[in-house]
Amino acid sequence: MSTGSDHLFSSSGNGANDEAEPSYISIPQYDEPPVSIKDFGREVFADTPKKIKEYLLSLFPIIRWIYRYNFVWLYGDLIAGITVGAVLVPQSMSYAKIATLPPQIGLYSSFVGVMIYCFFATSKDVSIGPVAVMSLQTSKAIAHVIHKHPEYANDPTYIALGLSLLCGAIALGIGLLRLGFILEYIPMPAVLGFMTGSAFTIAAGQVPGLMGISKLFNTRDATHLVVIHTLQNLKHSNLDAAFGLVSLFILYFSRWLFAFLGKRYPKYERVFFFGSVLRNAFVIIFSTLISWGICHHHKNPKKFPISVLGTVPRGLQNVGYHTIDQNLASALAPELPISTVILLMEHIAIAKSFGRVNDYRINPNQELIAIGTTNMIGTFFNAYPATGSFSRSALKSKCGVRTPLAGIFTGIVVIVAIYGLTGTFYWISNASLSAVIIHAVTDLMAPWYVTWKFWKSSPVETIVFLGAVFLSVFVSLESGIYFSFAACLVFLLLRISFPTGQFLGRVEVVEYLNPNYSEANGAIEETSRIDNDPEDKKKYEVVRQTSSSGSANPKPTTVKKYTWVPLNHHNINKDVLIQPPPPGVFVFRPGESFTFPNAARQLEILVQEVRKQTRKGGVQQHQLTLGERPWNDHGPRHKVYDEGFVDERPLLRAVVFDFSASPHIDLNGVQALADIRQELNKYANREVEYHFVGILSVWSRRALMAHSFGGDNSETRPERHYVEISLRQAAGVDGSATEAVEEESKKKNKYRDEEERDTVSQLSNDGSYIPIIATNTPFFHLEIPNLEFPESRE
Fold first, then answer.
1. What is the radius of gyration, based on Cα positions, of the chain?
2. Cα–Cα distance between 766 and 25 in angstroms, integer?
3. Are 617 and 649 contacting, i.e. CB atoms less than 8 angstroms apart?
4. Domain edge (last residue) among 461, 493, 525
5. Which stretches within 688-728 are classed as H helix?
6. What digits encode the pLDDT tens for the residues 287-333?
7. Which domain holds residue 558?
């Protein structure tokens, strides 16, 4: 190997002709110094004024699009805003019932949410307002505070305001500090398990109101007790049941009917769509008319034959600044973690979902700022915690919303209801509101096929999901989400702590276009010529095999190459011939990032395999006297050895670590590597080569080099220096492909050209090739080298 500017280039493990004789070409030296703290600081603080400007502008996304607002957008926003408003009015009063708050508080939360959110939103589809799950958590927080401080029993709205303010402040702080990534640590089983359990809890709690028996027992008991008591008291159902059951039937039947008619008559699909989304409003309107007809002639409300909503104050009440005292804040503290998680988890999940559906990206941190600001400002208007609603967001999206400004029109609809329809709200049947709630929350339950899909994807996480549902229903909502989060965290730590590293070997592969698969064991028939234009073609990498029925014969221009796969045929065709590395060479791929929970355990797997497959260097075990034998050499006191025994196992020559699937190495991992190097060098009685593949992190390279890995020094000089080179980029051309290469590819057949470039003898010595990675780190590679040692070739 030349240590100057001339380096030996040899075809590596992915080359085409490993049997070819190596050639010498001249390539420039390329030394890459380790990254420094100064480099890190320069990267972090680069363009600081520009970053500050972008940060300030990102706080108000409306600035970036409001000046382009037009009549087309206005039409879409107007339709979507009014439609969502018609749905939001009855839903908000229903959800206020779940939160054990007066119905007008739901209306206040509705108009504040939709109108404030649009100024900070990065999602055009999300509709902010009262939601079922957050309402349920609000009711639990209110009950918790009243239990500790009975003096607040007469003012549950004050408790809800405090919860909204504190949760909003936490969300705002997380967003401003750009810590929204922490929400990614909430796993899907926790979210769906909690949502399903909560939806069942809400539905079970509304059945007594649906049947008119809610006053006969405590509907805030544990869910299973509510179900038992409901079944025991069904015989006491009254006229409310007629309103509730009929309303519930109409809601489900109309949804099915409009969906059927939309498919049956596609021309009128949009008409049927609006008929479906307004079914809640229609049910409330007609049930209210009937309720007024049978109740208005009674002078005493206590003699009404059905339960009605009652008085709803007209207009906004008690608008202004509200002070949260210290006792309330301390009483709410235990409820803040779960309340904040619910507030943010549901909103971010909905925003991301509709962003993917409608082809735009949201900013999670800005969404946290939006929801935090909305809830904090909402306290001035007696609003309780509001977040994104999946059902209303879906409706808003289907209505063709164009911008977040649609929330303004939704807010106007709610304000009109607050000031003009409160007298009508008095006659709304409570049973009909319960039907609206049950109809809405049942869509939040994960259907059976989702559970089955989970089971096929990950049985362990399915058990976590079912456990979250069970605990949410039979214990408490908090226990459900805490259990699922803790269980997923434990499984994650177990997976990280007990990885299964793999030893790799090579397989020869051939690249084919559009092969025909026969019924024989792996035989492939090629029926069409290779097309130079692969735009509409599909590539298959097929392992070359022979069978009793025939073989796959590649065309002369087809490129053969090698890839590295697990030696134990894991996820590989069992009939494939896998070539092990040369004798004394081990290629090891860690199963996880090389960090403190697993580094030592993964290396222990390597050491055991090395001791099993290679012999110890120096004096052999059978040549030791009794006094020279180590204490842990178990066996008879006087062993009988065959004097003619020869250990044919090879000596350890090199260990290759494939870190392409393990992007991070921490201090424990590097120290463990250094310890294993010392152990294996002593075992082999020689300097073993340690190669590292796929390490692109500059900090991982720095850590390894700090422990004398990768460097080109006299003690660890590789027997053969494998340098990976590529074509030099043309001056003034950005990207990996140059104009010269593109022009060359037009003149020659693509596959013949690839074969020629993969042949060492075809490399030109005109200076057009340069190293891909630093030449001063000969033990770092992009791909796994062959490591054919002279002794191993004999």
1. 35
2. 9
3. no
4. 493
5. 698-706
6. 999 999 888 887 777 788 888 888 888 888 888 888 888 889 999 99
7. 503-564
* 279 and 418 within one domain: yes
Pick the range with the lowest mean pLDDT from 216-225, 262-271, 453-462, 484-493: 216-225
Q: Which of 128, 89, 112, 185 is nearest to 485 (CA)?
A: 185
- By CB neighbour count within 10 A (0-12 exposed, 13-18 middle, 19+ buried), where does 36 fall? exposed
Select from 529, 528, 557, 524 the least CA-distant residue to 542: 524
Question: Where do we find the tokens 């970053």?
Answer: 51
Q: Read off the tokens for 9.
A: 């280039």
Q: What single-letter amino acid sits at 669?
A: G
- Supply the pTM of this predicted model: 0.78
On whether residue 593 sits in a domain, the answer given is: yes
Task: Tell me, yes or no, whether 298 and 260 share the same domain.
Answer: yes
Same domain as 665, residue 560: no
pLDDT, one tens digit per residue, over 396-433 is 888 889 999 999 999 999 999 999 988 888 888 889 99
Torsion of CA 237, 243, 248, 253, to 10 degrees: 130
Which residue is it, tokens 């941190």? 365
- Tell me the two tokens of residue 40: 């890190």
> 333 and 439: one domain?
yes
Q: How confident is the model at residue 485 (pLDDT cuts 50, 70, 90)?
A: confident
- Please state the three-class secondary structure of 691-736 as a single string: EEECCCCHHHHHHHHHCCCCCCCCCCCCCCCCCCEEECCCCCCCCC
Average pLDDT over residues 68-90: 91
Residue 133 token pair: 């799950």
Q: How far is CA 572 from CA 507, 540, 575, in A?
A: 10, 15, 9
Q: Could you tell me which residues come within 8 angstroms of residue 619 by beta carbon, excluding any fewer than 6 positions away?
A: none
Determine which helix (DSSP H) or strand (DSSP E) holds 336, and give its type and residue range.
helix 336-357
Q: Could you tell me which of 356, 364, 350, 358 has the C-alpha nearest to residue 401?
A: 358
Q: Work out whether the CA dihedral 432, 433, 438, 441 comes out positive or negative.
A: positive
Is position 314 within any domain? Answer: yes
User: What does the alpha-carbon distance between residue 704 and residue 711 come to, in Å, rounded to a whole number?
Assistant: 9
For residue 26, give the 3-state DSSP assignment.
strand
CA–CA separation, 379 vs 374, rounded Å? 9
Are 113 and 25 found together in one domain? no
Adjacent-strand bridge partners of 208 = none
Q: Domain end: 443, 471, 493, which one?
A: 493
Q: If we measure between CA atoms, which residue out of 769, 781, 772 comes closest to residue 722?
A: 781
Q: Do residues 276 and 133 share a domain? A: yes
Rounded to whole angstroms, the Cα distance separating 435 from 418 reads: 22
Under DSSP, is residue 726 helix (H, G, I), strand (E, B) or coil? strand
Structure tokens at 537: 């073609």
Cβ–Cβ under 8 Å, residues 392 and 129 = yes
Is position 637 within any domain?
Answer: no
From the CB of residue 699, how many other CB atoms can be counted at a distance below 10 Å?
14
Question: Does 570 map to a domain?
Answer: no
Coil, strand or helix at 173: helix
In contact, 157 and 142? CB cutoff 8 Å: no
Q: How many domains does the chain have?
A: 3
d(CA 368, CA 170): 9
551 and 594 inside one domain: no
* Phi, psi (deg, nearest 5) at residue 654: -155, 150
CATH code (residue 607): 3.30.750.24
Neighbours of 221 (CB within 10 A): 13
The Cα 449–Cα 446 span in angstroms is 8
Q: Alpha helices of 430-561 — where are they, by DSSP H? A: 430-441, 448-457, 459-474, 477-497
pLDDT per position as a tens digit, 81-110: 999 998 899 889 999 999 999 999 999 999
**Within this chain, do residues 771 and 736 fall inside the same structural domain, yes or no?**
yes
Residue by residue, DSSP assigns 142-178 as HHHHHHH-GGGTT-HHHHHHHHHHHHHHHHHHHHHTT
Distance of CA 502 to the CA centre of its chain: 26
**Backbone dihedral angles phi then psi of residue 222, each to the nearest 5 degrees:** -55, 150
